Amino acid sequence: MLSDDDVKWLETPQPGWSALRLPHMILEDSFVSGDSSGRRLSLRFFRHDPDRSLRAKVIFGPGTQGPPGHAHGGSMAAVLDDAMGGAAWMQGHPVVAAELTARFKTMLPLGARCVVEAWVSAVDGRKVRVAGRLRQGDGDTVFAEGEALFITLDPKKFGVLTSEASRIFSELDEGTS
Ligand SMILES: CCCCC/C=C\C/C=C\C/C=C\C/C=C\CCCC(=O)SCCNC(=O)CCNC(=O)[C@H](O)C(C)(C)COP(=O)(O)OP(=O)(O)OC[C@H]1O[C@@H](n2cnc3c(N)ncnc32)[C@H](O)[C@@H]1OP(=O)(O)O
């Protein structure tokens, strides 16, 4: 479903980005990144090293359709939710989403190469506020923007995920130091 060029594009970090190698147990059944067929969502996650915010490359496949030829708003909101949650995890906050706002700005053509940017904007005790943007990969068009409130949970609730997440991010630091 994806061309070889699309796969190569998805997997190639931009300058200043490090690839996040997420374990199979996180990815395989993930609603957002668990589809390897290319029919629905195809994503790769990265860290933007200068400010440790999150980047993702994403292609919305034909199975994400809402309006004919364009992505469903729920699929864009799900991508923003995942990326914003990932941005919080990446900064050491084991969170779940409590509230999410998405603003749909421009219809997103299926198959377009897109970039997601997500960053923690404020932390107040257990409340972690995160913002995000889904834009054209090779241009300035913004398809959607998101804001969300995430709540930090006791790391024990996530079992092995919390230690896996720390391991992934410390490996990234070793690789980029
Ligand atoms: C998981 C992957 C890990 C690895 C990540 C690694 C790399 C990342 C890269 C890629 C991305 C991969 C994964 C991304 C990760 C996540 C993305 C998915 C995110 C989701 O999709 S996750 C599913 C949907 N999510 C839920 O299924 C939550 C259901 N819900 C609950 O589980 C509870 O509801 C909870 C825990 C939210 C709160 O419950 P609680 O009992 O612990 O705390 P409590 O209620 O006391 O609230 C404490 C303070 O938050 C305020 N507060 C609470 N809720 C609020 C609201 N809605 N609006 C405004 N304020 C709110 C209160 O007002 C109080 O404020 P105050 O202290 O000031 O009074």
In short:
Its main location: membrane. With about 180 residues, the protein is α+β, with helices and mostly antiparallel strands. It contains four helices and seven strands, in the order H-E-H-E-E-H-E-E-E-E-H.
Describe this structure in words.
Keywords: Apoptosis, Cell membrane, Cell projection, Cytoplasm, Fatty acid metabolism, Hydrolase, Lipid metabolism, Membrane, Transit peptide. One of its GO terms (molecular function) is hydrolase activity. By secondary structure, this protein is of the alpha+beta class. The chain has a single domain, classed as Roll (Thiol Ester Dehydrase, Chain A). The protein contains four helices and seven strands; from the N terminus they run αβαββαββββα. It has helices at residues 4-11, 24-27, 73-90, 160-176, and strands at 17-19, 41-48, 53-60, 95-104, 113-124, 127-136, 142-152. It has a seven-stranded antiparallel beta sheet with strand order 1-2-3-5-6-7-4. The radius of gyration is 16 Å and the shape is globular. The mean pLDDT is 94. Bound molecules: ligand 3IX. Residues 20, 22, 26, 45, 81-82, 85-86, 89-90, 96-99, 126-127, 149, 151, 153, 161, 165 line the site of ligand 3IX.
